[in-house]
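ESCALATION

Customer reports they have been waiting on this structure for their group meeting. Please prioritize. Original submission:
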Amino acid sequence: MFGYYLGLALRSFRGSRVLTALIIVLMGVGVATCMVAWSVFRVTAADPLPGRSATLFVPQVDNFGPTRTNQGEPPNLLSHADAMALWHARGHTPTTLLYPVSFVHDPDDGTGQPSGLDGDAVTRDFFAMFGAPFAQGHVWSQADDEDGAALVVISDRLNRRLFGGDNSIGRSMNLDGHAFRVVGVLGPWQPWPRFYDVASTGTAFIAPGDIYLPLRKAIALAKRSLTGYCSAVAADPNIPDFNAWVHSECVWIGAWVQLRDAADVARYRQFLVAYATTQQQMGRFAWEPNIRLTGLNAWLASQRVIPKATNLSMMVALSFLLIAMVNVVGLMLARFMRRSTEIGVRRALGASRAAIYRQFGTEAVAIGMAGALLGMGLTWLGIRGVHLVFEPTIAAWAHMDLPLMLGTVVLAVGATFLAALYPTWRAAQVQPAWQIKTDD
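Update from on-call: job pushed to the front of the queue and completed.
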């Protein structure tokens, strides 16, 4: 029966080529616009750690006070004192401290030019907590974490660049004039967005760094953080050197904790309140405890990591599709009602209203499939040129894949079918007697 209705649809297409072509073009362009915007939106809004993100939280402690916070919100980062207090009190709670750093690498053999390397000073839980895979070697030990050993984990990209992709475990690297021993090489790893640098959400869609070293070693070398501030208003000008910076109330260390369930979350939140209360009692804080414990996805939302252009383009694309559907309703109504005589004759010969619904529903699906084919082609072209609209670091991740193709088909067919509901209903209301009398 479907083949019969499909044959009727194909014959009707030949009888109204212009209207059919207009509908296909409208749906193809509307769907393609949506899918190009979606190809970018799904990348920026994706869960960076599926299956694990629900257990990761950012702890915040207000060490600025109510007159220096942003609408009462604690700083995104922690001071050195607060970060170390949380780290030493971690017990069996996986806790990561980190801050972004930059080093100058000087080749040991003297054959190359010095180059800058970006990365992070981290504690050892960083790699397990965020699922960073090791291709070679392993993370440094707990003792190395405490002692601030001169060790480094490097990216697969850097290993290929410096060591030709060979096993580089035990090799030496010269960073800022200091020798570091390679203990691990990460496999390909691209968290998207780069959520773990809690103060770097403005650069959340650039590649992660190439070097990771013990946080205490970076502090011992007086390596300044690439981020950090001393109040919500402006940097404190009375910080003469790194030692004073470390012992000040400036915030520059990011923190993450991994909590298994709601009971763990409640327990850790109570710990933060107790810690802030203790600081108040000691006279360090002159205000009531002000803490936050925010989950990963809620954190990304609060930091507005998804670029405004992405949200705006998605809304514009959906609006364009809606306008296209409204126009398709009008074109289909004109197309179907031009065939009132045909419908009346079919009804007079015994066709039920349900048969009319099936006939025109099949036509809508066939048009939707044609729109889907056009939409896939236009989506591919749109993705190829998406860098003209979005930042290159984001546009590079937009790609055509099977889910996007299936989504294009489903959206095109579904939108066309919805647009055809009212015209189909009108067609089914045609009275056969009136059409036969008119023809007479």
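Sent to customer with the following note: The chain has a mean pLDDT of 83.
Escalation resolved.
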